[in-house]
C-alpha cells in the first residue's frame, strides 16, 4: 500500500529537519534530571504548553495566584493538559474519539456544541484520512506526522470553536504516541507563540496544498520542535539547580 505522506520526505530540507527535531527530543530525554525526575519537568512543560496554546487562541497566559482560572480558553487548555496523558492510548486506537474528547475539554465553557465536528464540506472524509494516518497509515518520521496532524486540524477547523487548542493538543499527543517525545517534555507551543506571525503564515501555506507551502509548514514545525526541546532543557536545568 502506498504511503500517502512519503512524498513529503523529498521536499527540500524536510528529511534533515525531521532528523534534527528527533535528535533534539532524544537529547532532552537523556538529560540527567529527566532520567529519573521527568514527572516534575513534564508537568511544568505541560502547563507551559497549555498557557502558550491558550494565548495563541486569544486567551491569557497567566494563571491567577488563587489558582482559579475564569478565562474559558485558558481553562480549557489547562483541562487538556491535565487529561492528555490518559488520552494517548485512545489517540493510537481511535483518534476521532480522542479528538472529540479534546474538544469537549477545550470548549466546555465556550459552547454547548462540544465534541461534534461540523458536517459540512469534506470535514468527515478528511478526518477519516487523518485518523488512518495516525493509526499506522504512514511510516514517515514522527516530526513529519506531527506537522501533518497539526497543520491539517488548523486548516480544516473541524469544530466551531477552539480548533487551535485542539490542533496543538493533537500534535502533542502525536509527539508522545509516536515515541518522538514519549514523556511530553518538549514545549513547541512556546515557540509557536513567540513566532506567532510566522506560525500563522506557515499554517496558511500548508492549507494552500502547494509543495512550497507544505515544505514551509513542516520546516516550521520541525524548528518549533527543536525550540521546544531547548525549552525543555531549560526546565530540566532549572530543576537541577533549584
Number of strands: 0
Low-confidence stretches: none
Question: Nearest-angstrom radius of gyration?
Answer: 17 Å
**Distance N to C terminus:** 52 Å
Taken as a percent bin, the fraction of beta residues is under 5%
Provide the residue-averaged pLDDT.
Answer: 96
> What string gives the helices and strands in order?
HHHHHHHHHHHH
How many strands, which pairing sense, and closed or not: the largest β-sheet? none
The global form is globular
Coarse structural class: mainly alpha
The proportion of residues forming helix, as a percent range, comes to 55-70%
By DSSP (H or I, 4+ residues per run), the number of helices equals 12
Q: Short description, anyone?
A:
Residues 94-223 form the Fido domain. This protein has 242 residues and is an all-alpha fold.
Amino acid at each position: 500500500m502506498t504511503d500517502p505522506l512519503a512524498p513529503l520526505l523529498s521536499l527540500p530540507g524536510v528529511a534533515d529537519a525531521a532528523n534534527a527535531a528527533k535528535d533534539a527530543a532524544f537529547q532532552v530525554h537523556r538529560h540527567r534530571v529527566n532520567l529519573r525526575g521527568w514527572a516534575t519537568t513534564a508537568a511544568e512543560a505541560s502547563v507551559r504548553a497549555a498557557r502558550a496554546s491558550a494565548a495563541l487562541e486569544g486567551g491569557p497566559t497567566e494563571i491567577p495566584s488563587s489558582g482559579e482560572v475564569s478565562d474559558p480558553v485558558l481553562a480549557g487548555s489547562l483541562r487538556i493538559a491535565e487529561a492528555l496523558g490518559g488520552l494517548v492510548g485512545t489517540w493510537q486506537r481511535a483518534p476521532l474519539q480522542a479528538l472529540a474528547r479534546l474538544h469537549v475539554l477545550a470548549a466546555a465553557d465556550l459552547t454547548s456544541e462540544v465534541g461534534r465536528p461540523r458536517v459540512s464540506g469534506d470535514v468527515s472524509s478528511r478526518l477519516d484520512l487523518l485518523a488512518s494516518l495516525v493509526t499506522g497509515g504512514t511510516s514517515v518520521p514522527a516530526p513529519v506526522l506531527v506537522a501533518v496532524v497539526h497543520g491539517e486540524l488548523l486548516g480544516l477547523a473541524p469544530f466551531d470553536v477552539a480548533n487551535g487548542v485542539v490542533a496543538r493538543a493533537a500534535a502533542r499527543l502525536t509527539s508522545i504516541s509516536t515515541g518522538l517525545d514519549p514523556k511530553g517534555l518538549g514545549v513547541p507551543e512556546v515557540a509557536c507563540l513567540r513566532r506567532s506571525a510566522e506560525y500563522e503564515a506557515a499554517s496558511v501555506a500548508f492549507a494552500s496544498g502547494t509543495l512550497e507551502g507544505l515544505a514551509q509548514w513542516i520546516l516550521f514545525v520541525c524548528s518549533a520542535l527543536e525550540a521546544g526541546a531547548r525549552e525543555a532543557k531549560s526546565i530540566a536545568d532549572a530543576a537541577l539547580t533549584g
